């Protein structure tokens, strides 16, 4: 396993549309393991392959809080089948260090994907998990949370990331 470098906005590779995974083989499992390690080290609750410069449709999520056992969820070739309701949640993103924004999304999302062993599964996500699934799925289409805020907030976010980066 290895830590990968997380791309920071406005890196143009964050805008790439990821390609589906043909086969869940050892190469993909290595990618998944590196992504999990990178996410936990950051630390973050989700990471998409796009964020480490790999344009493949893979993301990992773990929304367990510090006092809960870790619960890694792996999504390969995810598809959001259905969404319902709305919620607004204060989101962060490892590609926007030090920034959080209120983002409106669906309250529930039904998602289908392959797991680390290439087995298909379906998940009915609600609340924070639904937020994470939608946020990470956006990354695979080159979409970022900055696209979901007003032009004013967008400029502020861009400036804040640049400032945090300069002081890092
Ligand atoms: Ni993100």
Please tell me about this protein's structure.
- With 168 residues, the protein is α+β, with helices and mostly antiparallel strands.
- The protein has a single domain, classed as Peptide Deformylase, CATH 3.90.45.
- The chain contains three helices and seven strands.
- Strands 1-2-3-6-7 form a five-stranded antiparallel beta sheet, with helices on both faces. A two-stranded antiparallel ribbon has the order 4-5.
- A hairpin with a 5-residue loop joins strand 6 and strand 7.
- The longest helix is centred in the C-terminal third of the chain and has 17 residues.
- The structure holds nickel (II) ion (NI).
- The site of nickel (II) ion has 5 residues, from helix 2.
CATH class: Alpha Beta
The total domain count is: 1
CATH architecture verdict: Alpha-Beta Complex
Order of helices and strands: HEEEEEEEHH
Nearest-angstrom radius of gyration?
15 Å
Kindly identify the CATH topology.
Peptide Deformylase
Q: How large a portion of the residues is in β-strands, by DSSP E?
A: 25-35%
Secondary-structure-based class equals: alpha+beta
Q: Report the mean per-residue pLDDT as an integer.
A: 96
Helix percent band? 25-40%
Uncertain segments are none
Tell me the major beta sheet.
Answer: 5 strands, antiparallel
Bound molecules: nickel (II) ion
Give the strand order, joined by hyphens, for the main sheet: 1-2-3-6-7
Number of helices: 3
């Amino acid at each position: 396993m290895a830590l990968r470098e997380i791309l920071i906005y406005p890196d143009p590779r964050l805008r790439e549309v990821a390609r589906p995974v043909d086969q869940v083989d050892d190469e993909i499992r290595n990618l998944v393991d590196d992504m999990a390690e990178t996410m936990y080290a950051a630390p973050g609750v989700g990471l998409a392959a796009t964020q480490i410069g790999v344009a493949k449709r893979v993301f990992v999520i773990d929304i367990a809080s510090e006092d809960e056992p870790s619960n890694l969820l792996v999504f390969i070739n995810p598809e959001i089948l259905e969404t319902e309701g709305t919620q607004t949640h204060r989101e962060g993103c490892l590609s926007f260090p030090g920034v959080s924004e209120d983002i409106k999304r669906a309250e529930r999302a039904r998602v289908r994907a392959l797991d680390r062993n290439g087995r298909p599964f379906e998940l009915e996500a609600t609340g924070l998990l639904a937020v994470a699934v939608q946020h990470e799925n956006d990354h695979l289409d080159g979409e970022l949370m900055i696209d979901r805020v007003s032009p004013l907030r967008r400029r502020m976010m861009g400036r804040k990331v640049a400032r945090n980066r300069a002081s890092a």
